[in-house]
Amino acid sequence: MKIKIYKCLLVGFFVAILGACQSTPTHDDSLYLELGGESGITKIIDIFIYEIGQTEETLHHFEDTDIDRFREKQIEHICTLSGGPCTYTGDEMRPVHQGMNISESGFNAITNAMIRALNTAGVSIGARNRLLAIIAAMREEVIYR
Amino acid sequence: MLNRLQKLLFLLISCQLIFISSEVTAGGKLIGSAGATQVEGSGGGGLVPWATLSGYATRDEMSASAFFSAVSVDDFRMSSYGAAYTYYDRIEVSFTHHDFNSDDKTTALAQNIVGFKVRLFGDLIFTSWPQVAFGAQYKHANNTNAIRALGAKDDHGVDYYLAATKAWLDGPFHRNFVLNTTLRYSKANQLGLQGFGGDKQNGYRGLIEASAGIFITRYWMVGAEYRQKSDQLSAVKEDDWKDVFVSFFPNKKAALSFAFVDLGRIGGKGTQKGAYLSLQLTY
Predict the structure, then answer these.
(1) How far apart are CA B199 and CA B195, in angstroms?
(2) Which listed site, A128, B39, B157, B276, has its alpha carbon 20 to 30 Å from A63?
(3) What is the homologous superfamily of the domain A28-142 according to CATH?
């Protein structure tokens, strides 16, 4: 009888663990939602593009950029990075920045443009820092290429 | 002779501060990432030097900064001023002057410090390992006789330190978070104001220093620091230092820090607590 109780407890324990595993979301879209979903991200990118236009030191990097395509891919990219229901169909980070020789300072200037966009769009500090950490991780693929 | 050299260096740094050529001027790093200037003039927190270099210079840039700080505790006050120049996110050279006075006007000590720091590897924010730097602070106290009377062996000496600093953009509470540990190798008594080496103990000692801070918003940081001190003079007891601080980075040109400090016993007086204020201007 005692052994049965232990067995039951043991089985219950494993079921609980499995249940916990299953209930753990394999897909975390909390950042996507905090950024305001599709409309929020569209707003962020529109302000971001305006802010890039105000950042003279990096403007030359965008001389040949098709702004409409850039806007569309940026929205897709941020949506994907934040766990949203999108697929990024743009270029990979390393080849697209090849030959641009973006300096550390230039990368930070663009990052600052993004920070201003996130602030203007009213994104919370927590969500902003989460997104910045994701963007920062791509730095090595972007600078001095 | 040495004092003249130090003054010359100070003048040189000041001139560079004013006439720094425009194409290499500073400031490519992210706001707040330069930290402040610690009490001995090196880039850091308030009491502790960090692996960060003064100013916002990236690997393509140079930057210059100047700082002023004042500490007022129960029986003493100290003012410091200095300047630092950072070359290409690699080397920092600094000059600092300290004036230390007792409120009862019986003690007046002063010293000059020339600092040098080299970033060995790592980036505060962008590498998964910390930014690590090696630094040295050459200190020369002015009041040789008073210092010898206390039992100190020398009026000048060099501190060496190894600092590791790491910031996380998405730290606890999704806030920017910074941790620093510094290992100092020193003979100095009370920063060197009471000379170097002593009657109780005379030799280099390894000392641990640490800082932790969190950016509540993009511009405001709060944190705490700890600095172990050696205790080498039997005439005057020396204790470890602690502080809690608030720093404000309104833009990349200025940083303002305010701290409550506990400096323990100083100059034969009881525990010294009080306020620390520091202003840093960067170009």
Answers:
(1) 12
(2) A128
(3) Globins (1.10.490.10)
